[in-house]
Amino acid sequence: MKSRYFRLIGLLTAGVVTVTVPSQVLADTGVTAGISETIASNLETGTSVDAGISSEISECIDIATARATISDTPDATTAAANAQPMCGYTNLGIANVESNLNVREAASEESELAGKLPRGAGCEILGTEGEWSQIQSGDVTGYVKSEFLRTGQEARDYAPSVMSSIATCNTETLRVREEPNTECDIMALMAVGEEVEVIENQGDWIKVSVDNEVGYVSADYVEISNELTKAMTMTEVKYGQGVSDVRVDLVGYACQFVGNPYVWGGTSLTNGADCSGFTLSIFAKYGIYLPHSSAAQANCGRRISASEAKPGDLFFYGSGSRISHVAIYIGNGQIVHASSARTGIKISNAYYRSPICVVRLLD
């Protein structure tokens, strides 16, 4: 017992820990027994004694330091087990590619595609098989090459630079307004579970981006969270009778660019295009040359009703009669379009917004 007390006294007098200990406490515990009056006096007044640290005290300090170091640096396994979820992922992976990462149904490059993981998109790493990682992201579960994923602390450090503030609709049908009030025009409708990017939280109203246009939704009907882009499924496209081979080929060609980036003013199907730049480049392959403007493209071809639409027809959207967005109808009530900087080229429900008009360019 005496040795233990002397080590404690040594630490205190060495200035490692500065405390004031009442003399009554020392007397009650018997700590002062055998201690010189000088040391006891210094402890009672809180004075630090710097000189004459014995080798035994130094050893005690070394042990304390070692214990502190061990405590502050848990092993990797413990750290992973205690990691807090980020953007809903506990074992986070982030696609580290220039455009998008193919997600395969099995751990083989010969396997069918299950989806695409865009650059900067997040996933839950479920396990590894050799050079492959099994991942789950959105509605896609499959395998990706591990070398194209940011993982561990690197992924967690990188995530804030690519995450977005997202508003998720929690009601059956939510009106997206042109202004933050219920008296103005409706620019779009959101279905339950649909997501839009948040520009600004204004309290009762959330300012959002819909196809790079500004709109407003009621804060009462959305959940706000920080999210990473998710993987996209390889949606099967079905065609009705009477659809020409050109239409089938055009739609198949357009859909292969799903996951590639949106770039305002761009016309590159791989490096980035905006909505009209995307349609312009797709139709150019089939000898149809369009202006680089959604409003101008609406004046090409002939207008038809939405009920007559076939794969390859163009759907136009906007506010009131003003056209500001264009997409390619791919059949089965779906469109492919260059939507926004956050989502890039994607597949959507053709009626996620009310189309202003539908145009036919292919006979």
Description:
By secondary structure, the chain is of the alpha+beta class. The chain has 4 domains: 2-72, no CATH class; 80-162, Roll (SH3 type barrels), CATH 2.30.30; 165-227, SH3 type barrels, CATH 2.30.30.40; 235-360, endopeptidase fold (from Nostoc punctiforme) (Alpha-Beta Complex). It has 9 helices and 23 strands. The chain has helices spanning 2-13, 23-29, 37-45, 55-72, 76-82, 152-162, 245-255, 275-284, 294-297; strands spanning 92-95, 100-104, 113-118, 122-129, 132-137, 140-145, 149-151, 164-169, 173-177, 186-191, 195-201, 205-210, 213-218, 222-227, 232-233, 267-268, 272-273, 302-304, 314-319, 322-331, 334-340, 344-349, 357-360. A 6-stranded antiparallel sheet has the order 18-23-19-20-21-22. Strand 2 (100-104) and strand 3 (113-118) form a beta hairpin. Helix 1 crosses helix 4. The radius of gyration is 32 Å and the shape is globular. The chain starts with a helix and ends with a strand.
